[in-house]
Amino acid sequence: MDKGEKVKVDLAERSYEIVIAGDILSGLGERVRSFGFSPVLAVVSNPTVFGLYGERVIGSLKEAGFTCFHILIPDGEEYKDYFWTYHILTELLRKKLDRNSCVVALGGGVIGDITGYAASVYMRGVHFVQVPTTLLSQVDSSVGGKTGVNHALGKNMIGTFYQPRLVWTDITALKTLPKRELLCGIAEIIKYGVIWDEKFFDFMERNREALLDLQEDVLKTVIRRSCEIKAEVVSRDERESGLRAILNYGHTIGHAIETETGYSRFLHGEAVAVGMHLAARLSEAMGIMGSEKVLRIQSLIKAYGLPYELPSGLDIDRLVSHMRMDKKAVASEMKFVLPEEIGTVRIQRGVREADIKRAIAQ
Ligand code: NAD
Ligand code: GLY
């Protein structure tokens, strides 16, 4: 079996390992067995992912001696809610999972978020393992312990910080991922370059074709480096009292676009891509970053085929009012993650509405 790359998320007694390799789903059972969990185990997935990878995962867990059953929720962000959390909890109770049991999340960020949330509240918390199958979940959502579901009044508004025991990342699963979903993961990878590591940004500039072709060594490098950066940030500020907010670069404007377009026109990573470019322009409008760096960020986003401009026809006042509702905003004071250089960002409070409008309406 490919030994792959390993990244440790250092959180004292809540530390865990991220294993990144090709074709490792059949090795999951043996690794999970090493934790000494109770013998009854649940896999949560959706019909799309389970149809592709369920048999391999369940087979591996059974071979390792687990009594294993699966819980499916329909495929889509709209099912990441309380109703389906309740369904998961009901099934865990029915199958009598105990406090030492483990729940495995097999899927993208939707499955990871809802499963982690259910695991965090079931009997006040049982073990959970992330098996992320989208690029976005492999570089972002499976790491760092943010779990949660949506509420009719706001996305991701209900949730917990609850770390998995293991993240088991099979890069081969990306071969079946639709291209648009792949690009959403790439948007988050570009984010890490801008917020933390200019060399990594260079790497993304130089390896575009290889990454889009899913070349294994390049994939492993970008997933490992993304996870290392996220692990570093999370280990310094697990519960987002400060630094962790930098992971939201591009997200304030991105969320506003998603809300204004009713979550139908853009996928999350696409909205974040536009948000990253516009936040760079905002940085320029506020005299923080020079125009040549804004152009470099814009060019990289564009080179990967991601959107970077605000779509026409959106009402700027309404967008700004959504930004005021952002989870980072306190008492309506708008806070933005703004790049200073490629590789360094700041969290800027008190951003003026006039500057935002100037930057995004250009
Ligand atoms: P997703 O989970 O909806 O997956 C996207 C689509 O790809 C789905 O249709 C899914 O069934 C399909 N899919 C998954 N793996 C596949 C594969 N290998 N082959 C073929 N199809 C596959 O979307 P996502 O982008 O992975 O995650 C988005 C979610 O993640 C959002 O709910 C967002 O709020 C959340 N998120 C959470 C965090 C966090 O820190 N917890 C961070 C970022 C995003
Ligand atoms: N995706 C942002 C975070 O995990 O903090």
Question: How would you describe this structure in keywords?
Answer:
alpha/beta; Dehydroquinate synthase-like, alpha domain; 2 domains; Rossmann fold; binds glycine; binds nicotinamide-adenine-dinucleotide; 362 residues
Task: Kindly describe this structure.
- The protein is α/β, with parallel strands linked by helices.
- It folds into two domains: 5-176, 3-Layer(aba) Sandwich (Rossmann fold); 179-361, Dehydroquinate synthase-like - alpha domain (Dehydroquinate synthase-like, alpha domain).
- Helices cover 46% and strands 18% of the residues.
- It contains 14 helices and eleven strands.
- The strands form three sheets. The chain has a seven-stranded mixed sheet with strand order 1-2-9-6-5-3-4. It has a two-stranded antiparallel ribbon with strand order 7-8. It has a two-stranded antiparallel sheet with strand order 10-11.
- A hairpin with a 6-residue loop joins strand 1 and strand 2.
- Helix 5 (135-141) packs parallel to helix 6 (179-196) and helix 10 packs across helix 11.
- The longest helix has 21 residues, at 216-236.
- Residues 46, 48-49, 52, 75, 77, 80, 107-111, 113, 133-134, 136-137, 140-141, 144, 146, 156, 173, 176-177, 181, 184, 268 line the site of nicotinamide-adenine-dinucleotide.
